[in-house]
Amino acid sequence: MTDRVSPRLQRRCLSVVLCVGLLAGGCSLTPSVTDSPTTPPTTSNTAIPSGPRTVDGTGVPTAASAVKVLVDDSSLIERQRGMEAIGPQTFFVSRSTITVNDYVNNRLVEFRQGKRLRSFKSPGLDCCEDIRVEGSTYWLLAGDAVRSYTVVDSRLKRTLTRELAVNDSTQWPMGKLSREDDNLIATPAKGKPEIIVGPGPLPARPEFLLNKSSVEIHDGKFAIDLMTPGTPEDATLLARNSTNSWYWVYVDSPRNWGYVYHLDAGGTILETYTLPRPGVVVPSRPLLVSDDGKLYQMNLTNRSARVLAISPNR
Fold first, then answer.
1. What is the domain-level CATH number for residue 184?
2. For 125-140, how does the pLDDT look when each residue is reduced to its tens digit (9 = 90+)?
3. I need a labelling partner for 50 at 20 to 30 A (CA). Which of 44, 100, 193, 310 fits?
4. What pTM, to 2 d.p., does this model score?
């Protein structure tokens, strides 16, 4: 028998820090959890070869972008005396339906137009590190396995189990699920990314080089030196497909939580977003780019769990 802290206890501990390693799609070095609830883990400063094209991203507003509150539900939060509240760790948005893992009540809850649509009992006590909903299929990542489910008689019925190769070197505080074109990719908390469904090959993760007033992004399709409003402290790939990519650049500011740049296949800026400050507890997945290219943020307070639709800057 191995000594192992229960996933539920681990998640309670991680709820007070930014588990943005879940989102990190870049740098070949192992990121780590920081002590600050608002600062992503350190990105590699190792020099990267080739000459990137300069892209001016300094014109992004410092005031947070306009948002629309899609979910505001106090029942998703459990208050604890003398401790931070416990709430959802991940969410997914598919068209008009928002799926949230109700960690407090051990259920998956779906919302539409701000109201509860339906809910299902979670397959396990510690469900889930990440969720994807594709049509009638629910993909759940928990620990060292990805499982798919469909709804039968108002219950989740398992249709597939894929065990993941894990090792003793922790890569991320939490695992993640992502899709790049035809590939569904799982990154376990301990281990390397794997293709769950799709023809492959596994896309290479981008590399970053942080400078005083810019961040170099080497994506494989492009190499740019993105000028930023302030000194970048980290850069993270949020989502990517054959024609678009979304990068979160964290710049410490009392007015916002950093900037998201939506780039085309050549690294040209199409849209920008200025993130609102997070709540008192940061979930393992605070940000999501939906399959139709929209940006969402989940903020947790001591009173409520909120899902925000973030509008691009004008």
1. 2.120.10
2. 778 899 999 999 999 9
3. 193
4. 0.86
